[in-house]
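G., the chain you wanted modeled:
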Amino acid sequence: MRSGLPVYWVPCFDGGLWQNKGHASFWRAGHRALLEGTALEVIRYFIYALEKETAEPLAFLSRPIQPERQARLFAGTRNLWCAAVLGVMSGREVIFDGGKWAAVLPGITGELQRRGGSLCSVSLSQKSPSATLAL
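Predicted structure as tokens:
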């Protein structure tokens, strides 16, 4: 903490245990929202890991996905910590556009607002982390 490096302290919870009212690093997301539309190998990887599959890993990643296993995966939720902050720390702005979140280069948010899109801007400063929602 005394290294001279910029340190951003982001609390785990805001508003009580397992709560985030806009100023915490904790958030919860459904597996469907996180994984739908990703490469099939990624979906297979999560099935492999979360179901503690014992087959040879690389061979498993190329097998067809059993519909019931994908349905079980997509029905789950995941507690995430600091994931939303990583995009901001990379110098990008985190936006919500068209039903999806994205970490974009600065300046993209102005174009989004001109098109009438919604914007969730997350910013970190040395004084105070903040999240702002503008519709």
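The CA atoms of residues 13 and 74 lie 25 Å apart.

Shout if anything looks off.
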